[in-house]
Design brief:
alpha/beta; Rossmann fold; six-stranded mixed beta sheet; two-stranded antiparallel ribbon; 8 strands; hydrolase
């Protein structure tokens, strides 16, 4: 009888253990335990970024149009190729991962690619035919050539080194071939596909174009995966209808502005884009079995900041610091005198503004958003960026 009771107890213990394991698996799938502190940091050795001006660290400035002062004044003290008074989200990502700021692929002076490269350029879109020639397909092609050429050169220089010799300065600026599959591949792109569409077609036509836009995004990810990329960190597009530029130039109609003064129809299209983007990322994670995808809800972070700007110490989010769109269109970095009034002078306190130039966020706003997205609280699955190599 005692043996029988012991066997029954053992079976019960096994069943309890099995139930616990199943419960934990279900919680993990729902993203409920991914923020646990016992996950090992990924230790990403490099970042490869693809995007538009929201993450361009000097590409478009080197290739087409120089970004002039006062851009860069708050942090760098001089123009840094960024459409901002200081740092962008991608810069705060690099800081969080303890990596150097990314050199733009298109810049030939003073670049260091040991810990990654930035293929983002201002005005870029996912599809061809927008504001910039450097659409996502071009950026992927650039990466593929970059990886092939730097790998060949690194191997050639390494083979010529004698044991004990200090590496040449040139090879120290090249990426290590073994780091490509371990790197983090980041995306912040799609806003210009919507913006260009709003300027040249109806909102409904833009909405109908989303599947084709995301099909091309999927194709780009597949190409990177074939090149060995495994860890993907993908930003949703932001609330484009809250950009002062869009509010100023959008035809005013009753009911078109929400409680925060944002263009409601444009934000609704952005939200639909994000819904389909998140669904596509879920599909990609199943199609690419060795991948680790993290979808990051940047939209919610930015909209929360705009909604609570007073509590966060910012001025009205429709006010911007540099340039002018009221009466006279003066881009940030330029000045004009009209009827004795000088347009184009930057504000005295950029850190009080959410918008830097009517289109791009200030460093202070980027810092606020970074603090709300890098921890994983707005990610699916809910990994922090340090843990974004882990699989669900």
């Amino acid at each position: 009888m005692k043996g029988c009771a012991a066997a029954t107890k053992s079976r019960m213990d096994c069943l309890r253990l099995l139930s616990l394991v199943l419960l934990l698996q279900m919680m993990a799938q729902k993203g409920l335990v991914m923020g646990a502190g016992n996950l090992k940091n990924c230790g990403f050795p490099a970042i490869y970024n693809f995007g538009d001006s929201n993450s361009d660290t000097g590409g478009i400035s080197a290739a087409l149009n120089e970004i002039t002062a006062p851009n860069g004044e708050t942090f760098f003290g001089h123009p840094s190729g960024r459409a901002c008074d200081g740092r962008l989200l991608i810069d705060f990502i690099a800081e969080r991962l303890k990596l150097p700021y990314l050199s733009p692929y298109l810049d030939s002076i003073g670049t260091d690619f040991r810990h990654g490269a930035n293929f983002a350029t201002g005005g870029s879109s996912i599809r061809p035919g927008g504001y910039s020639p450097f659409h996502l397909g071009i950026q992927i092609s650039q990466f593929i050539r970059f990886k092939a050429r730097t790998t060949a050169l690194y191997n050639e220089l390494s083979s010529k080194r004698k044991p004990g010799n200090v590496p040449q300065p040139f090879i120290r600026n090249l990426p290590r071939p073994i780091d490509f599959p371990k790197a983090l591949y980041t995306f912040d792109i799609g806003q210009n596909d919507l913006a260009y569409g709003f300027q040249h077609s109806s909102e409904e036509q833009v909405r109908m174009s989303i599947p084709d836009i995301l099909s091309q995004f999927s194709q780009a990810v597949h190409q990177l995966y074939e090149q060995g990329a495994r860890n993907f960190w993908v930003h949703s597009t932001g609330p484009i209808g809250c950009l002062p530029y869009d509010v100023i130039y959008y035809p005013s109609k009753p009911g078109n502005l929400d409680q925060n003064g944002c263009v409601k129809p444009q934000n609704e299209v952005a939200q639909e884009f994000n819904r389909q983007l998140e669904a596509m990322i879920s599909q990609l994670s199943k199609q690419l079995p060795q991948s680790a995808f993290t979808y990051v809800d940047v939209y919610s972070a930015k909209y929360q900041l705009i909604s609570t700007y007073k509590n966060e110490g910012f001025v009205d989010p429709m006010n911007f610091c540099c340039g002018s769109y009221y009466g006279y269109h003066i881009d940030c970095g330029k000045k004009a005198t009209v009827n004795g009034t000088v347009y184009g002078n930057p504000c005295k306190h950029p850190s009080k503004h959410i918008s830097w130039d009517g289109i791009h966020y200030s460093q202070a706003a980027n810092f606020w958003v970074a603090n709300h997205i890098l921890s994983g609280s707005l990610s699916r699955p809910s990994f922090s960026i340090d843990n974004a190599c882990h699989h669900v």
